[in-house]
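For the sake of clarity, the format in which proteins appear in this thesis is described at this point. Each number in the token line that follows is a code from a learned vocabulary of backbone shapes. One such record is shown here in full, so that the layout can be seen directly:
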Amino acid sequence: MEVRRLVASAANYTGVLGAYAFVRRKLTKSQVTILAYHRVCPAEDRKYLQPLTLDSFRKQIKYISEHFEILRLDQLVDLIRSARSLPERAAVVTLDDGYKDNYQYAYPMLQQYHIPATMFVATGHLDSGELFWWDKVEHIIKQTSKEQLDLDQLGRYRLEREDGRFRAVVSINERLKRMPDDRKNLLIDKLSKLCEVKIRHHLGKEVLLSWEEVREMDRDGVLFGAHSVNHSILTSMPLKRARDEIAVSKKDLEKRLGKKVTSFSYPNGNFNDSIVDLVARNGFTCAVSVGAGKLISLTDDVYALNRICPDESHDKFMAMLSGLAGDVKRAVGAYARADESAKLTDDASSS
């Protein structure tokens, strides 16, 4: 990660990024970036899971407002579906999950710079008081007085220092991520008891959007899309349940907003052909993911639109916008796959 930041910084300050972006635009005829944000909050309020600070968010939003044509997500989809040409340099802004800080901090900045955005919300958490499972883990680890934890399949951790607690949150969340929800919730309850931390009822109402805040932003032009009901990974559950997560989230939003909802965001970015089929069958006209930094062209599948996720590094942000970061990442991945394939072929030949 640090090497990538250093490379991005060197490329930015030597002017390589500007030249690369210019040549890339001329060759591809378009350079559309879909940005994916999550939490945005003041530096002093940052949690273990590293929300973007207000200063970084403002700097990035200001930059794209001055140097890019800003499209709404539905406008981009219409252009792709109609096979019309895309702008040479354009950006789309999206925010996922439905955190209250999107309303408190991100929304006013988007208004200030006249940037239309699409917010994807997990409808089952709005006004429910229920935290996302990963926020429960963070709250428990942050509040516990325990200095060591032995969690069997979730690992062993030392919590005397803040960096140890941060590593514990990241590691536990990574291990829980792909577990079935029932198993995941059981282990989080066990973690809560072991750490002697009780999650206050309705804590989620302090952290996540309310329906009234959603309606206010909708009236002011923010587009809303579905992000499932419970933010469960759809590829890790039976198709019937995945269909319910997709269909009910759409129905929830349309009932609350009184309008059609046509865009979907795959929780954790995970999808496959069966999930795409369910999304399309339930009346969505597009869906977004996150991945290898790929920028958007007319040939992209509107049910598999890739987004990039900026962090605090402005140089890395510039490398993403130029297309260089994604191109390098995909090239490295392709080389690794080819190398692995060659090794398998050599092993087969020698056996």
Remarks:
- Residues 116 and 227 are 19 Å apart (CA to CA).
- The longest helix spans residues 324-350.
- The chain has two domains: 2-127+210-334, 133-195.
- The first strand starts at residue 32 and ends at 37.
